[in-house]
Amino acid sequence: MSKLGDLGARLYRGEVGYDFVGKRKIWYGISILITITAIVGLAVRGLNMGIEFEGGAVFNTPKTSVSVAKAEEAAEEASGHDALVQKLGNDTLRIQIAGVDTDKSDRIKAELASEFDMKADDINADLVGPSWGEQIANKAWQGLAIFMILVVIYLAIAFEWRMALAALIALIHDITITVGVYALVGFEVTPGTVIGLLTILGYSLYDTVVVFDSLKEQSKDLAKQTRFTYSEVANRSINSTLVRSINTTVVALLPVAGLLFIGGGFLGAGMLNDISLSLFVGLAAGAYSSIFIATPLVADLKEADPQMKALKKRVLAKRRAAAAKGESAEAPESAGDDPQDGAEQADQDAAPAVVGPRSGPRSQPTRNRGRGRPSGKRR
């Protein structure tokens, strides 16, 4: 078995672990700081909306040796507006100029052809009206609203309303960070960006639902025992699915990173940048929020429940009593033990959930083995 596989097995069995829920205030602080930075970037810099949303013209030239800087200068002089120039992988240029009508587009194309020493007919000009982009944006907002409503309803039915609320907060957290990164980096927002944002919604919820499913299974009849609090069970759920979350996230990020850094960086494919950046940031934010935000939030909401408050008091009181008697306060044999074992099994161990490597030999129960002859007739 590989080292990562061995670590995953030990995490699943509860032999090792990390106290994610116990350190939740640190993760909340980091998320709040990142979110505020994203919001400030969005408010100060704003989004660089593409011509699909603002309207304008796109000029595509044939293969040329003209530099991006020279093409940008020529396009701005010809149009009187800011121009966005991208050099594509086949040494062609893509020039975007907002606020251009048909007559002005023809004049700009002629001036660009003269400046680049090529025929005007070789330059392809496309006009885009702002109404088309506005329709896309409206449909995207509608799709986002419907998606969130359906997600909340499904999670509330399949799990409970606290998990649905935590998942919704984590989802908003991921979208805010992704949009904020777009504002800070200055990438152009195109229909490809909208597609990428809508795509990450499912990825953002994937790891969250996996952890929630484990938590739901482990917290059945939790109030009938006095070994673990709800937060401890939530922490074990994160640890037991941690390696799986890391594996799925890395596998998903690798091809997206290829699109972003190789396709967009080296080949100069503009549309790949739009989609891959939103996917890359959204996937990373989704993996982070499922581990550090969503499940700790559920634990906070659940610990406010009177039943879970009473359970926590019983667990802590039992541990204090055990400590006062000088009994061992070591971690239980396995943090993966079923909390449904009941009060009888719970009374045998009052230790907290595992949050680190387990040390020391396992204690084995003593058994009275009789030496009598088995029942049956003698021969």
From TrEMBL:
Region Disordered, as annotated, extends over 322-379
Q: Superkingdom of this entry's organism?
A: Bacteria
Q: Which compartments is it annotated to reside in?
A: Cell membrane
Pfam families membership: Sec_GG, SecD_SecF_C
Q: Where is the composition biased (Low complexity)?
A: 323-334, 348-357
The topology of this chain with respect to the membrane is:
Multi-pass membrane protein
Which residue ranges traverse the bilayer? 26-44, 140-157, 164-185, 191-212, 246-269, 275-299
MF terms from GO for this chain are: protein-transporting ATPase activity
Determine if Transcription is one of this entry's keywords: no
Task: List the HAMAP family hit by this protein, alphabetically.
Answer: SecF_B (MF_01464_B)
Spell out the subunit comment.
Forms a complex with SecD. Part of the essential Sec protein translocation apparatus which comprises SecA, SecYEG and auxiliary proteins SecDF. Other proteins may also be involved.
Please report the name of this protein according to its UniProt entry.
Answer: Protein-export membrane protein SecF
